């Protein structure tokens, strides 16, 4: 029983460290919640679902690997490959969202500050019809949360599978379940806590005059997170 408690606490600790040291676990939610004007409940729900997908993907791979007798080295390689895939997905999403943010910037009046040759022809004729005193409408787009969810399903939990192998060697189904549960709860709770703090902190900052930049900023932050994950192993 003492071994099980120690294993569970270790799994929980690794879940916290794994999440807190990975900016890709929370930065996309923070910047998108601000750019798309998500409420706190919506932000927390999207973070929670994405966290479940993130942990669940690695748990399923680990359990299938254990059941089929696949070696730890091969499963570790699979997780590393998934890490490369999710980094590329984040880069692609960040790049695409940056382009969208730049378009929104131009459409919302930013084109007045750019040289004429940088402005698409159709936007040259668009007048700035949105008053600076109006709040951006609440985002009703369903696509962005799903994109985040899919990316996080691909996202690996590199430290989880080696932890699952420890009780698996001892044929302890209770140990396997305990490791998965404690690691999962801690990971998701840490994601939600940091995202909540980031969302709360951003609400105190004065973004009123910079609202037209927010989508572009969100895209660039996600792009940087993806590049950091790909090149520096964040």
TrEMBL record:
Annotated TM spans: 43-73, 85-103, 146-166, 178-201, 213-232
Family matches, as InterPro entries: UreH-like_TM_dom
Record carries keyword Membrane: yes
Record keywords: Membrane, Transmembrane, Transmembrane helix
One Pfam family hit: DsbD_2
Domain Urease accessory protein UreH-like transmembrane: 41-225
UniProt name for this protein: Urease accessory protein UreH-like transmembrane domain-containing protein
UniProt organism field: Aquipluma nitroreducens
């Amino acid at each position: 029983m003492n071994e099980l408690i120690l294993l569970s606490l270790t799994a929980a600790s690794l879940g916290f460290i794994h999440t807190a040291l990975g900016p890709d676990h929370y930065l996309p939610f923070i910047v998108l919640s601000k750019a798309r004007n998500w409420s706190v409940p919506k932000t927390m729900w999207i973070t929670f679902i994405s966290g479940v997908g993130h942990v669940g993907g690695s748990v399923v791979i680990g359990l299938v690997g254990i059941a089929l007798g696949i070696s730890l080295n091969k499963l570790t390689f699979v997780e590393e490959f998934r890490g490369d895939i999710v980094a590329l997905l984040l880069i692609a999403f960040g790049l695409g969202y940056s382009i969208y943010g730049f378009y929104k910037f131009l459409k919302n009046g930013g084109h007045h500050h750019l040289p004429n040759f940088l402005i698409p022809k159709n936007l040259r004729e668009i007048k700035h019809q949105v008053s600076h005193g109006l709040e951006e409408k609440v985002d009703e787009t369903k696509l962005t949360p799903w994109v985040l969810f899919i990316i996080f399903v691909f996202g690996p939990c590199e430290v989880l599978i080696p932890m699952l192998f420890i009780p698996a060697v001892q044929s302890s189904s209770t140990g396997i379940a305990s490791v998965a549960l404690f690691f999962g709860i801690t990971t998701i709770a840490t994601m939600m806590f940091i995202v909540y703090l980031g969302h709360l902190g951003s609400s105190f900052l004065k973004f009123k005059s910079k609202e037209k930049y927010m989508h572009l900023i969100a895209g660039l932050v996600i792009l940087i997170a993806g590049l950091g994950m790909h090149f520096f192993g964040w």
